[in-house]
C-alpha cells in the first residue's frame, strides 16, 4: 500500500504577536493508484450548499485548475483587516514530480493524486464524521505563529478527547473581538504578557460540542463517499490553523481508523488571524461510490476562531455540507 500525498505550505498573514510563519512539508513519495475493494455504493444525493461567511470575513475564490491549487489571501492590517482590504496571491502546486518557479513566485508541478479508498459496512448510515475536541495550549499550542506544534501533537501526547460528537457540516463562523467585550480578562502566559485569556468564553461548534473558545483543537475524521468519478477540489481555511489528510494510509488506516503520526498532509493551511484567513486547496481524482478516509485537524491558539472545509465534486458547487456522503470511522470494515 502506498501513501499518497500532496503537500502545500506557505502563508502570508499578520498575527497580533507578529507575522505568522508557514510550516513546510515535503515528500518524495510517488503517487500511485491502488485498487481497493469497496462495499456496494450507498445511494446518496446532495443539494450543493454555497459557502457563506459573515460580512467582515475575508473570502477568496480559489483559482480552478486540473493541478493542485493554493490560494493565499495575505493580511494587509492586523485586527481591523476586512475582505475589501486584502490582496490575493495564487500558487499552483501538485505532486513532487517536476517543478517550475516563475518570477512571480508561482510554483507549478505535474500530476494529480489518486487516493486509495476503503471498504465500509454497507449497512452503516451516513451519520456524519466523528469530531473530537482536544485541549490546545493557550497561545503556544497548535496554530501558534511559529507553527512549532505539529497537527499530530494530540497523537504524540496521547491526549484523550474532552468531548466527541458527529457532524456532516465542516464550518463554523468567525467570531469577533466585540463578542469578547463582556468577559473578564486574565494574562496567564508570561511569554506573551499582552495576550488576554477571556474567562468563561465558550462556543458550541460542530457536533454540538462546547469548547473553551480561547484555545482548542477539533479533529474531524471519517469516510467520504464520492458521488461521481472525476476531479474534486478540497479547500480549507481556519483561524488559526487547519491541516487536511485524505486517503487510506494518509488520513488513517482502513478499518482501524488509526492515523499515522508522521503522515504527510494533503493540504496544509498555515495560520490565519483576525478575519483574514488564507484558503488552501487541493485537487484529487476520485471514483464514484468509493469511500475515502478523511481527517481534518483544526486548531485555535487564542481568542477568536473560524473554520471551513469544502469539497467541490465534478460539475458541482463547493460545499461544507456533506450530508449523505459523510460516514463515521466506525463504519470501516476490519482489515
From TrEMBL:
<dbReference type="InterPro" id="IPR018871">
    <property type="entry name" value="GLEYA_adhesin_domain"/>
</dbReference>
<keyword id="KW-0732">Signal</keyword>
<dbReference type="InterPro" id="IPR037524">
    <property type="entry name" value="PA14/GLEYA"/>
</dbReference>
<dbReference type="Pfam" id="PF10528">
    <property type="entry name" value="GLEYA"/>
</dbReference>
<feature type="signal peptide">
    <location>
        <begin position="1"/>
        <end position="17"/>
    </location>
</feature>
<feature type="domain" description="PA14">
    <location>
        <begin position="162"/>
        <end position="325"/>
    </location>
</feature>
<feature type="region of interest" description="Disordered">
    <location>
        <begin position="37"/>
        <end position="117"/>
    </location>
</feature>
<feature type="compositionally biased region" description="Low complexity">
    <location>
        <begin position="37"/>
        <end position="113"/>
    </location>
</feature>
<protein>
    <recommendedName>
        <fullName>PA14 domain-containing protein</fullName>
    </recommendedName>
</protein>
Amino acid at each position: 500500500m502506498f501513501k499518497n500525498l500532496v503537500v502545500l505550505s506557505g502563508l502570508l498573514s499578520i498575527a497580533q504577536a507578529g507575522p505568522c510563519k508557514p510550516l513546510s512539508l515535503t515528500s518524495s513519495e510517488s503517487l500511485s493508484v491502488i485498487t481497493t475493494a469497496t462495499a456496494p455504493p450507498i445511494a446518496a444525493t446532495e443539494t450543493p450548499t454555497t459557502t457563506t461567511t459573515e460580512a467582515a470575513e475575508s473570502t477568496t475564490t480559489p483559482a480552478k485548475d486540473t493541478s493542485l491549487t493554493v490560494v493565499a489571501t495575505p493580511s494587509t492590517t492586523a485586527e481591523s483587516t476586512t475582505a475589501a482590504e486584502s490582496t490575493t496571491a495564487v500558487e499552483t502546486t501538485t505532486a513532487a514530480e517536476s517543478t517550475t518557479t516563475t518570477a512571480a513566485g508561482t510554483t507549478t508541478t505535474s500530476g494529480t493524486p489518486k487516493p486509495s479508498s476503503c471498504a465500509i459496512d454497507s449497512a452503516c448510515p451516513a451519520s456524519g464524521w466523528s469530531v473530537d475536541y482536544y485541549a490546545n495550549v493557550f497561545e503556544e499550542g497548535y496554530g501558534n505563529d511559529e507553527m512549532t506544534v505539529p497537527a499530530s501533537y494530540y497523537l504524540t501526547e496521547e491526549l484523550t478527547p474532552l468531548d466527541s460528537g458527529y457532524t456532516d457540516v465542516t464550518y463554523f463562523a468567525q467570531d469577533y473581538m466585540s463578542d469578547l467585550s463582556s468577559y473578564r480578562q486574565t494574562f496567564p502566559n508570561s511569554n506573551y504578557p499582552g495576550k488576554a485569556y477571556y474567562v468563561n468564553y465558550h462556543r458550541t461548534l460542530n457536533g454540538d460540542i462546547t469548547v473553551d473558545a480561547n484555545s482548542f483543537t477539533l479533529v474531524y475524521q471519517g469516510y467520504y463517499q464520492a458521488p461521481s468519478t472525476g476531479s474534486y477540489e478540497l479547500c480549507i481555511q481556519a483561524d488559526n490553523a487547519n491541516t487536511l489528510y485524505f486517503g487510506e494510509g494518509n488520513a488513517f488506516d482502513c478499518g482501524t481508523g488509526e492515523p499515522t503520526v508522521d503522515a504527510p498532509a494533503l493540504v496544509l493551511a498555515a495560520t490565519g488571524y483576525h478575519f483574514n484567513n488564507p484558503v488552501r486547496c487541493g485537487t484529487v481524482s476520485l471514483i464514484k461510490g468509493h469511500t475515502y478516509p478523511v481527517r481534518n485537524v483544526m486548531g485555535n491558539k487564542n481568542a477568536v476562531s473560524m473554520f471551513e472545509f469544502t469539497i467541490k465534486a465534478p460539475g458541482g458547487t463547493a460545499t461544507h455540507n456533506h450530508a449523505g456522503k459523510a460516514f463515521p470511522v466506525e463504519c470501516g470494515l476490519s482489515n
